[in-house]
Structure formats: C-alpha cells, structure tokens
Amino acid sequence: MRYMVAGGYLVAAVLEFISLKFIYNLDKKTMDEMGADLAKKHAEA
What we know:
The chain is mostly helical. Helix content is about 95%, strand content about 0%.
C-alpha cells in the first residue's frame, strides 16, 4: 500500500513535467510568431 502512494506521486510528477514541457513549447512558438509580426509591423512603419 505504501508503494502505491509513492507511485502516485511519481506518476503525478512525470505528468506535470510532460504537461509543462508541452505548454512551454506552445508558448514559445506563439511568442516567436508574435515577435515576427511585431518586427514586420516595425519594419513597415
């Protein structure tokens, strides 16, 4: 029974790491797109 609690924490930590990595990749891609749009608008002005 004790191992189930430890295993649950381990699974939760792994899932948290994977989800944070996935969210960070989405945010990084979005920020790159926003930066490119701003640079294009700045070049036009």
